[in-house]
């Protein structure tokens, strides 16, 4: 019940009580409407998932190198295909292995019989039958099973190699995109300097202080800068499209990358990297796995001269209409047989040919492994030297940039003193921008060499862990 405060005032009249009651009723009605609306669930925003706000369409995505690699490993279509191929290899290995496990089959061989009861398979016609088989000793078949199991392991190595390839391409694209964007910033500043130089040259040519050829040179410089800007903008678009596809991002989302340096593991001594590559290189691991698989097959085929042993049993339900009583003295409806099936090879040309084929394949795999080790050692040493060469080139580019920056400072100081004109200052800035881009190119080339060396040595996890 709702009470109005005027009812409790001494000497309160009905005129004072009536407005109070009306106001109280209005307040009560508003509270009821508010409670009802609070209990009604509001329709969720379709563009916003529950629990976490999705990035808005067109909003830039800030990425670090580590985050980009993580997204690539989660969304790469190549990795998904490699995982499926690894699963297929596992299933194929289980098919051969299943013959050494219990296998139970049920069926029927019922049919019309005219004459002696028999079936094309040599078994007696039956209304219902159950058969059981299990390989116990069959060395050629066991060798094939071990070979397929080793091939399944090799497929997992290929999966890891696919991941390494995805990491390498993603890291290179990320680092190159940062370099291209920095170069575009420098080129746009260079375009401004070229326009100023052209303007000053045109003014001086109009005053008779410059020849028309100087104006043409200034125009050529500006046109070259515009051409390079267009080329880099095209390359920027290509890298962005590749990264969006690789990272599983929408086409409308722009990317923000930050310049990063790779870890220093790729700059260690070549001998250390050779030792690491011998244990972690994917190509060498695949060659070693191939030798093991071929060796399993060769051992199995060579033991094909041994007897084979298989557990077998059959239960069958027979029918009188198959003429059993006419050709056998007694008839029994339910029949059960169990035992072993043994085959002793006396002369087998097929076994001899299989052994020779397996031996040739094993020898070829061993030669391939030896070549892989030799090539890997040379490849690691070559890529180590390339990293050092790129590092030296980067240092040269850094010193040239430092010299160009100092030259700009000198030109600006002399311009302030009236000893240099604006065109000479802008030319110095153009030279500084060129050295900047040369330094960015040298740094990116060194990073490329580092990534290739880390991939060869099996140390790519150092990039993003």
Quick overview:
The protein is built from eleven helices and six strands.
Task: Describe the protein.
Helix content is 66%, strand content 9%. It is an alpha+beta fold. The chain has a four-stranded antiparallel sheet with strand order 2-3-5-6, with no helix packed on it. Helix 4 (139-206) runs antiparallel to helix 5 (212-247). The two termini are 68 Å apart.
Features:
single chain, 465 residues, alpha+beta, Outer membrane efflux proteins (OEP), 3 domains, 4-stranded antiparallel β-sheet, two-stranded parallel sheet, 66% helix, disordered N terminus
Rounded mean pLDDT is 82
Strand content: 5-15%
Shape: elongated
CATH class of the largest domain: Mainly Alpha
Alpha-carbon distance between the termini?
68 Å
Q: Any guess at the CATH architecture of the largest domain? A: Up-down Bundle
Helix and strand pattern:
HEHHEEHHEHHEHEHHH
Rounded to an integer, what's the Rg over CA atoms? 41 Å
CATH topology-level name of the largest domain: Outer membrane efflux proteins (OEP)
Name the structural class.
Answer: alpha+beta
CATH superfamily of the largest domain, by name, is Outer membrane efflux proteins (OEP)
Count of distinct strands:
6
List the helices and strands and how they pair.
Layout: H1 14-39, E1 61-63, H2 65-75, H3 77-97, E2 103-107, E3 128-137, H4 139-206, H5 212-247, E4 255-257, H6 270-280, H7 282-302, E5 308-317, H8 324-327, E6 334-343, H9 349-416, H10 422-456, H11 461-464
Parallel strand pairs: 1-4
Antiparallel strand pairs: 2-3, 3-5, 5-6
